[in-house]
Every structure is written in C-alpha cells, then in structure tokens.
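Lab notebook, page 48
Experiment: co-folding of the full assembly
Goal: obtain a model of how the components sit together before planning crosslinking
Operator: M.T.
Materials (sequences as entered):
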Amino acid sequence: SYVLTQPPSVSVAPGKTARITCGGNNIRSKNVHWYQQKPGQAPVLVINDDSERPSGIPERISGSNSGNTATLTIDRVEAGDEADYHCQVWDGSSGQVFGGGTKLTVL
Amino acid sequence: QVHLQESGPGLVKPSGTLTLTCSVSGDSVSSGRYYWSWIRQPPGKGLEWIGYVYDSGITNYNPSLTSRLTISVDTSNNLFSLRLSSVTAADTGVYYCATAYSSLSWFGPWGQGILVTVPS
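Observation: model returned without errors.
Model output:
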C-alpha cells in the first residue's frame, strides 16, 4: 500500500515561514492535495493538484511537489494558521490515501 | 453549493453494525456530478478514506475495509449511506461524508462530521 509520511508537528514564530512536508515514493508523479483542519471542525481544502489555490485561500499559502516530497508553505504565518494539516493523493492500488497529519503551532 | 449532513447513532455495540446516512442538499445524488464519499478520523489521529459511491451504484472501497463495508445511494430521499459490520473499538472516530469530482480528485465540501463510539 502507498504511504504518505508527515512530521507530527511543526512550530513557527508569527511572521515567519512554515513548511510542512509530505513524503511518498515518487510522489511527484501524483497530484497532491492539502487540507487545513481546526479543532472540532471538518477539513478545508487549501491546495489542490500540487499548487492550485481554491477560491478564498490567501496567496500566503502555496504548494510544491518534487521527487519524493510535496511541501505546503505558509508565508507570514499568523495565529489563525494554527491547525492540523493533512496531505492526500490517489494511488491506483490503495485508493485515496492521507498522510498522518501535521500540527502547526504558532509560537 | 452542495451541503452535506451526517446522521446516525453515536454509540454502537462491539460486533454490531454501524449505519450512517448523509443527507444531501443543493444537488441530486443521482446527478452523476459527484463521487459521494465517506472519510473517518480516529480520536487524535489522521484521516482515513473509507470509500465512495458514484452514479447511483458504482462503488470503490478502502481495501482494508472491503469485507465489512457497504456504501449505497437512496435516490428517493437524496442521501447516501454507510454500513460497516463487525465493528470494534478501532472503528471509533469522527465520520465525515464528502464529495469529490472524480475518483482521483480532492474532497470538498465536507459534512460537519459525526462522532461514533464503539466501546472496548
């Protein structure tokens, strides 16, 4: 089965840049989607197809995908960005696959 | 804009069957526009795709759940359902229904989620 690996936690000071990684075998060959999930709420899509921002998502949030690692980047981090972030891909054998999630803490 | 709302029991006995429904508004479950999906999240853990139903009957399930799982559509009531049999404490979590534009795409929108507990 296909596995996506995320760091359990990332910490960043306000105004700095946060980078959350999602590792998978040859992940560059797949479309990666990212979700933000705040406590007690359903996930919200923030990046689809590696780097596309849905309507309403600020330009501070971006995505990239290369080699075996996809990355979600949040520039000028704000307190409101504190949340769990999940990556997701489709794999022909496993179906839809999610990473374990990363808790972003704003210091 | 499609709106989804989960409903069902919050407590299921071990070895019993978990049954949830997702009421759909803003579109018809028989429109063919969406893959009607279920996703769950154990307490304090990540998301797990359960499966989807498409075009009023085509299904695709998580290989780890296939033997216990049925997802179906009720066109009369414009909803879709999940049945998971032989549940254990490992099936405890928040269950979300969601839409997808294709079998390969992202999910959204999502329902608010419903917590289901299977006591150990």
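Interpretation: The CA atoms of residues 15 and 86 of chain B lie 4 Å apart.
Next step: discuss with group before ordering constructs.
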